[in-house]
Amino acid sequence: MQRLHWNLCAIAGVLLGIFCTSGVNGAAVMSVDFGSEYMKVAVISPGVPMEIALNTESKRKTASMLAFRDGARIFGEDAQNIGVRFPQNSYGYFLDLLGKSIDNPVVELYKKRFPYYKIEADPQRNTVLFRIGEEVYSVEELVAQLLHKAKEYAENTAQQKITECVIVTPGYFGQAERSALISAASLANLKVLQLINDYTAVGLNYGVFRKKEINETAQYYIFYDMGAYKTSAAVVSFQLVKDKATRETNPVISVLGVGYDRTLGGLEMQLRLRDYLAKEFNNMKKTPTDVFTSPRALAKLFKEAGRVKNVLSANADHYAQIENLLDDKDFRVQVTREKFEELCADLFERVPNVINRALATSGLSMDVVTQVILFGGATRVPKVQEILKKTIKQDLGKNLNSDEAAAMGAVYRAADLATGFRVQKFLTKDAVLLPIQVVFEREGESGSMRQVRRTLFGPMNPYPQKKVITFNKHTSDFTFDVNYAELDHLAKNEIPFLGSLNLSRVALSQVGETLKEHLTENVESKGIKAHFAMDDSGLFSLTGVELVYEKSVTELAEEDEESPLSKLGSTISKLFSSDKTEKAAEEKEQQDDGQEETTTEPPTEEQTATNTTKEAHAGNETTMDKTADFKEEEAQGQNKTEKPKIVTVKQPIPLEVTHLFTKPLSDELYEESKKKINELDKIERERTRRETALNALESFVIEANQRMEQEEYASCAVPEEIEQIQKSCAETSDWLYEDGSDADAKTYEDKLKELKKLTNDVYGRHWEHTERPEALKALAGMLEGSQKFLKTAKNLTKDFNVEKDVFTAVEIETLEKAITETEEWRNVEVKEQEKLKKSEPVRLTVKLIMEKMSLLDREVKYLVNKLKIWKPKLKEKKAKSNETDKEEAAAEKEDEAKEEQEEVVKDQEEDGPQVEEPQLPTEDTEKSEGSHSEL
Fold first, then answer.
1. How far out from the chain centre does Cα 752 lie?
2. 3-class SS of residue 581
3. I need a surface site. Which of 13, 390, 439, 793 has the fewest CB within 10 A?
4. Which whole-number Å values give the CA distances from 589 to 369, 627, 650, in the listed order?
5. What is the DSSP string of 465-508?
6. Which residues on adjacent β-strands are paired with residue 19?
7. Strand pairing of 329-336 and 317-326?
8. 257 near 460, Cβ under 8 Å?
9. 290-294 long-range contacts, Cβ below 8 Å, gap at least 24?
10. Sheet of 90-92: strands edge to edge?
């Protein structure tokens, strides 16, 4: 049913306006919902508007696990299974470690939850490294390998290469985490079109499939997500908004308020249950060994706790049971839902806090919220739903695919951003969760330096957006810091998890020299302006710093040389210029009397809807501002006029940015990581090739032995051939389990080629004898159809009917001869073939039959096409009125004859001779269920 549901969604995607504009071979794009426990991959490609990509096990979600064992790299469910036996070799739940320093509380919590991992500090970046044997892997490298596997799943679904994606991220990810995720995607050879917050992606998916319900009145919803690692709630609005510039009306989803709890989720519940089961086993005193000291036993208990937790969502009690848990001792204990809820009582108390915090930051009350919609696996826990219903005092919305909604929303966004698709616009306005401010020092009235804070992006400010801050009183080199601003809207225990609250330090140089050089006479300074941007991935950046000043200049113009048309164009341009707007901005800056101030550059609709944030910045860039009033001074005897103009000049200021949060990968470290991952990919490709070749060789040996014992194959071979094939198969089988067990892929492939050479003749004869009856049946059908057509064609000659001279006598004779020769050839060849044994070389091959059918088909088609284009000669009108009835009767007869001809043509096209070439056997083709596959 779930598969059917999303197939219907894919169809709906077409109806919603997802169109490929680049043809059949257009580029495909993908999305990845990278959850802590599972990742879901969606793809859009030509012919497949919206679809979840299946993994190698044909499942719609893949465990976010990665394991290393015996030089091999394993993903997904296989990595989970390895983690039960070798927990220190299987890695998961590491997404939240991105961008974290080794001393972050998140890392400490991770070590406590998974004590069997060897975690070290990166000597250069002080970030997390996993020690795996002799190698160490950064979190970015582990994430990159999972993203690369997601890319493979998407490419297998789309049947083409994919290089662009949208990645779903937790909304609370800060600058360090988002930068690290972009680096990981780059290591996986993926270009990130956008990082989209999980609740935004889910909201977009919800709105896209309910577009008709959205109108000019804002509708408010809460999307509540409880996943494996965290819980979040977002208040969003859906509304139709008309853009003033384009006059288009499009639906918009706006995030108004967000609340989250980083450590509340299904993982913590599973760990509580794991520890309870461990204590119960210790209490049974089956072994003196403490189960908490055994990583393997803890891994088994963790897996069983997850299974029991899921079962308790639908049942009141269930037995947890593990064979050979520790020291060959089995474990079995009953767990009730009541006991589970008791273990997680303090966690359930935190469930409503997330919604309350989201409402508080949005400034709305529950009264205006239409519905609370659930997504995330842990929302299936009955106690969670019970508490939420009591909190909101209304029914919960469960009409969303909680596993796949984020991936589907993100892939719709990917199609919008990609160049190969055209989608119906659905705009998104996300909200800043972690506010950002600029901190700098300036001299006060008393001469002492005081610290000034200016908020650039406040809590719940929409983005993407640009901001400008102006420094009016700095006349020498200075620095300013970019930090997280007030975080009062967050829970107190959340602040330490953010890590460094200082983002970057910006040092400006050559300020004094630049001011001295450019601020001369007739020049008015507009201050030093710093330009900031937050793109639609939530990434903050400083796009440039420049000195802005205005100076008056005069321009000598030849008044007599200016044409009337030029004057008219100049006058019209003045009418539509933005002088009033610019003047108002200039007056505002002058009123500030040199004080630092912040101005906002609101984004356009195009900036909101696309992942493009461009900041054009060129050295010594000059823009001409036209003044509102021009005075014309006429001088008698002169033909020149002086026109004063104000020129706005922007002079770049050199700057240096120092990151104060977790350092991103340097170029050197990035290249090292890239090389390491490429080596792993190469090893995996070789391993896959070897496994494929080994399986193919083993299967062929078994199949060949079985076929030589079957009468239908043995009858097609002489005893010497059967003996040789069986002997070679036996030798190959012995070699596989002895010396060949460690052979490489090429050796297996060469062995397979040798065996195929031995069996090709036998398999080829078997195929011929099996397929010949069908080919002869097709030939008989063609001959029968040709005979019917010939009979009709003879009636359409001049000798038979003067008015129906479609075919000539030569054409009729040619077709008749072709039919006769084909029948004679068939009868002779069939008799001769029947005299031969099946083990002898084949005389009447399928290929020869096909060639005869092709020749006959060509003759028939020539006549059929001629009949299609034939037109009767026009008859002379008879003048006598007494012959009118005869003409009408003749016309009726002619119409009947024409209809008869059309039916003949139609019959020949539908039921007549057609050549359908069966697939000829090749060396590498294989056919199932006893049919021959080799020639």
1. 38
2. helix
3. 390
4. 42, 17, 16
5. EEEEEEE-S--S-EEEEEEE---TTS-GGGGGGG--SEEEEEEE
6. 422
7. antiparallel
8. yes
9. 291/325, 291/326, 294/326
10. 72-75, 65-69, 90-92
Q: Which helix (H) or strand (E) holds 601?
A: strand 597-601
Is residue 856 within 8 Å of 913, Cβ to Cβ? yes
Summarize the confidence of residues 393-412 as an average pLDDT. Answer: 91
DSSP state letter for 603: P
- Grouping H, G, I as helix, E, B as strand and the rest as coil, residue 75 is strand
Report yes or no: 426 and 412 within 8 Å, Cβ to Cβ: yes
- DSSP label at 344? T
Q: What length is written for the chain?
A: 935
Pairing state between β 62-63 and 65-69: unpaired
Query: 641 phi and psi, to 5 degrees?
Result: -125, 135
Q: pTM for the complete prediction?
A: 0.75
Report the Cα 72 to chain-centroid distance in Å. Answer: 27
Smallest Cα–Cα separation from 692: which of 752, 772, 782, 733? 752
CA distances from 534 to 464, 531, 689 (A): 5, 11, 45
DSSP class of residue 42 equals: E
Selection from 505, 508, 544 nearest residue 658 by Cα: 505
* C-alpha dihedral, 922 to 927 to 930 to 935, nearest 10°: 0
Cβ–Cβ < 8 Å for 119, 131? yes
Residue 458 C-beta-side C-alpha neighbours within 13 Å: 8
Is the pLDDT confidence value at 167 over 70?
Answer: yes
**Taking residues 325-344, what's their average pLDDT?**
93
Buried b (16+ CB within 10 A) or exposed e, 30-68: bbbbbbbbbbbbbbbbbebbbbbbbbeeeebbbbbbbbb
* Mean pLDDT of the 747-757 span: 93
Axis crossing angle, helix 76-85 with helix 295-312, rounded to the nearest 10: 130
Long-range contact pairs involving 619-625 (C-beta distance under 8 Å, separation at least 24): 619/652, 620/649, 620/651, 620/652, 621/650, 622/647, 622/648, 622/649, 622/650, 623/647, 623/648, 623/650, 624/648, 625/550, 625/579, 625/582
- Return the H-helix or E-strand segment holding 41: strand 38-45
The DSSP letter of residue 97 is G
| Cα–Cα dist 198/32, whole Å | 11
Residue 334 and residue 752: Cα distance in Å, rounded? Answer: 54
Q: What are phi and psi of 169, to 5 degrees?
A: -130, 155
Q: Lowest-confidence range among 216-225, 451-460, 657-666, 748-757?
A: 657-666
Rounded Cα gap, residues 630 and 745, in angstroms? 83
Tens digit of each residue's pLDDT (9 = 90 or more) over 515-543: 888 888 778 888 899 999 999 999 999 99
d(CA 40, CA 50) in angstroms, rounded, equals: 13
d(CA 169, CA 143): 13
Is residue 872 classed as helix, strand or coil in its secondary structure?
Answer: coil
pLDDT digits over 675-717, tens only? 988 888 888 888 889 989 999 999 999 999 999 999 999 999 9
> Using alpha carbons only, how large is the chain's radius of gyration in Å?
39
Taking the C-alpha atoms of residue 562 and residue 176, their distance in angstroms, rounded to an integer, is: 58
Q: Is residue 428 within 8 Å of residue 253, measured between CB atoms?
A: yes
Helix (H, G, I), strand (E, B) or coil at 165: strand
Which of 309, 237, 222 minimizes the C-alpha distance to 273?
309
First to last CA, the chain: 43
Nearest to 934 by CA among 774, 754, 777: 754
Residue among 707, 919, 896 nearest 804 (CA): 896
- Worst-scoring range by mean pLDDT, 126-140, 216-230, 873-887? 873-887
Ramachandran angles phi, psi of 515, nearest 5°: -65, -45
Identify the burial level of 820 via C-beta atoms within 10 angstroms of its C-beta, where 0-12 means exposed, 13-18 middle and 19 or more buried: exposed
Return the biggest CA–CA distance within the chain.
126
> Are the C-beta atoms of 5 and 18 separated by less than 8 Å?
no
- The Cα–Cα gap between 536 and 374 comes to 25
Instruction: Tokens for 18, please give them.
Output: 């997802």
- Write down the residue that tokens 């006060």 correspond to: 444
